Amino acid sequence: MSEPTTLADFHATTIDGKDEDLATFVGDVVLVVNTASECGFTPQYQGLQELYNAYGDRGFAVLGFPCDQFGHQEPGTEEEIAGFCERTYGVTFPMFAKIDVNGADTHPLYSWLKDEKRGLIGGAIKWNFTKFLLDREGNVVDRFAPQKTPADLTDDIERLLGS
After folding, report:
1. pLDDT for position 117
2. Residues classed as catalytic
3. pLDDT of 3 higher than 60
């Protein structure tokens, strides 16, 4: 088997327990984000949803991957996480089951993302709400630190959408 080279080479479990072939999102500009419900950056859910609302009909998707590896800031079950996101921020973009983004149990998608775009501390994810922007072919274009807000990404997203 060859090394994964695009988003299309991965599967993930949705927040409601279904296997999702991420090839479904090839053709879209995709923002992959590791999320948490009890983090100082949690309000970014609102900005992520605003991006999804603004660009979703033009072929843009946000994929949220809850992670409890940073300060135990995502302690809930998938059902609790989904309810919180929907109730508090009106999240309608695809959310996935809780994963690890660092360490021995790193989800294969995140191993690939980190290999494609290394951050300030090498390949590791530094904190919740680290963002990876992928083009329509499923290639990683850029990586953004948690401090970079969703609104700060509009120019990059519009460029990839062909504006």
Report:
1. 79
2. 39
3. yes
